[in-house]
Specification:
Elements: H1 2-18, E1 27-39, E2 46-61, E3 64-77, E4 80-94, E5 100-115, E6 120-136, E7 141-155, E8 168-184
Antiparallel strand pairs: 1-2, 1-8, 2-3, 3-4, 4-5, 5-6, 6-7, 7-8
């Protein structure tokens, strides 16, 4: 009986040690949080931006993670604010390197935005193209830095008709971010 328990323990120990954090069967939880505040020389209102972007992923294959991304952004200027929520799939490919794991990612978000000044809501979508690096500080935890390019498409409500040439608003965003990534295997 002791030899069977020892054999099982050794097998489990070797299999856990041998597995890479970007191997098939691994779950990863990551995200970043950012806050910015902009003050104006003339005027009493500050522009504040809070952004939270969590993601959960699963490695169906070595080096390839399929995930679900969430996004929350709140931009306020004085008593007026825009709150934006998004959800959608993503795929991430990791390159095999020792302690540092570079990656590229593509994602899509369905978005909804709410404007507090006039209670308007509108829907849109966002396509994300991201490159980054996970730097492992432990076997299961990495600090993450990213550079993203986002293509945004929003359909504004009719109440914005006189303010913009078109209610179909397209914009591009360049973002730099930092966060943390946990790998569970």
């Amino acid at each position: 009986m002791k030899s069977k328990l020892l054999s099982v323990f050794l097998f489990l120990s070797v299999s856990v040690i041998a597995q890479s954090p970007i191997s098939q069967g691994t779950i990863n939880l990551n995200g970043n949080l950012s806050f910015s505040s902009q003050s104006y020389e003339e005027g009493d209102d500050n522009r504040n931006n809070l952004s939270l972007n969590p993601q959960v992923g699963y490695f169906f294959f070595d080096n390839i993670s399929f995930g679900l991304s969430l996004s929350y952004n709140r931009i306020s200027l004085g008593s007026v604010s825009n709150t934006n929520w998004g959800i959608g799939p993503s795929i991430r490919y990791y390159f095999e390197v020792e302690k540092v794991k570079p990656f590229v990612s593509i994602g899509y978000l369905y978005t909804e935005t709410f404007n507090s000044s006039n209670d308007d809501k509108w829907k849109g979508n966002q396509f994300n193209f991201t490159g980054g690096i996970d730097y492992f500080i432990t076997k299961n935890v990495a600090l993450e830095s990213t550079i993203s390019y986002n293509i945004n498409n929003d359909k504004l409500p009719e109440s914005y008709k006189g303010l913009y040439k078109s209610l179909d608003q397209k914009s591009n965003t360049f973002q730099v971010g930092v966060g943390i990534n946990f790998f569970i295997y």
